[in-house]
Structure prediction request, 603 residues.
Amino acid sequence: MCGIVGVIGNQDATQVLLRGLERLEYRGYDSAGLYVNDQQGHDHLIKRVGRIRVLSEALDETVSGTMGIGHTRWATNGRPTTANAHPHVSNDERFFLVHNGVITNAAALRDAYLQDVDLVSDTDTEVVVQLIAALARTGLTAKVALQQTLGLVEGSYAFALVDRLDPATLYVAKNQSPLLIGLGDHFNVVTSDALAMLDQTDRFVALQDGDLVTLTADTVTIEQLDGTPVVRPAHTVVLNDGDAEKGPYPYYMLKEINEQPAVMRRLVARYTDAAGQIQLPAALMRTLQTADRLYIVAAGTSYHAGLVGAPLFEQLAGVPTEVHLASEFGYHQPLLSAHPVFIFLSQSGETADIRQVLVKVKAQGHPTLTITNVETSTLAREADHFLTLAAGPEIAVASTKAYTAQIALEALVAKALGAAQGRAAAADFDVVHQLSLAASGQQTLIEEADVLHAAARDLFATTRNAFFIGRGVDHAVSLEAALKLKEISYVQAEGFAAGELKHGTIALIEQETPVVAFITDPLTAAHTRSNAEEVAARGAKVFRIAAHDLARPDDQLQLPPIDARLSPLLTIIAGQLMAYYTSLDRGYDVDRPRNLAKSVTVE
Ligand code: F6R
Prediction:
């Protein structure tokens, strides 16, 4: 949520910042700005409402420099206006600041320290930059003023600060919001996500909470707030720079939908040996085997992936498994079992709702595993154990390949745990074969995109609402399919347990209401079919998606074969593609839906 970038050294700062901001746009895109300084007495501050493209159009060749900071915003405090866009500048025009996070005591700080300062924005960030300037006016150096300010602020932040009087130095600080330093040759960069600076360097230092960093072109000095020096290791981020490009696809979302078969195969290759045996870290296996109950904690799409994973852990490994929304769990923790193990599912690894749970359960002494796509992320670093989704960067705001990768990895872990415990159910489940069926089945469905486009047109072109129904994992996938449609096409969509419709919600069914029914569970297929009939009898336009062995000739889509427990790996491809085409046909920006951001770093 919000992306920040910075650069200092021998680079064309404007271009480095702009390109970085374009790649961070997934974190927020309601306004953007940058400040550059040529270290020879000239500087520029440019801010615009709207996308990075709008900012870019506002720049000409005079806006150049060798150091600077940039920001793309997802509004928290104050509407998306030019005044509220970052960088914020102190009234004496000495300090320039970009911020990702939320300062929770901004109002109190303003009342206590800034009574005589006129604020020009509604943001918490402006309070911080004015406070730094006010402290500097008392004779403190920029660094000490920043240090003292950090001692006063409460909340989350990744800050990058420029002191116009000393443009050979860039200051950054971090608490609860992600921030990395990228190491270059006579330059250094700052970024919320390594992805944004991969064209500059592949060597990154992930900062930790409480770090205050002083950067010059050739030095990186990291201290804690009390001035104690700390050394943080640099990691090489192995990512093909091209992974972050759209290539021939019109939208990242379509590219990422199309990548799913490859992601399935890559996951199998990553977590199995030549004999097809699952290989997970021994320490993780020991931890998992202590669990008398697993608690999967996640948000949004990742929560939906957890709902699909829970029955796998129960059936294959015999471990009772609960799935919880992170935003609820942290503040209303249920009574835990005697030996809980926590699994955090997260595409970004930065979700604040999840992190607050991680911090709490770690303090309670419970073992933790993070499954995420971003190896350098906070949740990956802070949990006891970490497994990568290895899905490659997911840029579109609507999550697709991370969801299917999460389910596939849950299946691999559940199988490994069941096998380690000698369970027959695990022995009978050939997960490697099933994931290979998933990959080929996904490919088949992707090749039927035209059919799904036509279905999307027929069902959703003009509708204001829609329903997705199913039972068991079909209910879980209904929630995810509805979320996909909602977030990128703004259709009011509901995922519903098929059997619950008749208990009230069926009252919403009218002539032509679109209802997609998922039928992959042999146990309940007949019941779900009856529920689909019931809505059709009340005028609904029903689209049935049925498993290979349950399909009837008049079902609109028949799935390729797969174990019913993994059917969401196929059914969701239909959901994703229908949502994609609906958004496209309605003329929306598929990758950047309104009001959203990909990395949700505020509670
Ligand atoms: C929807 C989507 C979100 C995220 C949610 C949690 O397409 O991506 O619902 O799943 O914000 O984010 P992560 O998975 O990064 O923890």
The chain has a mean pLDDT of 95.
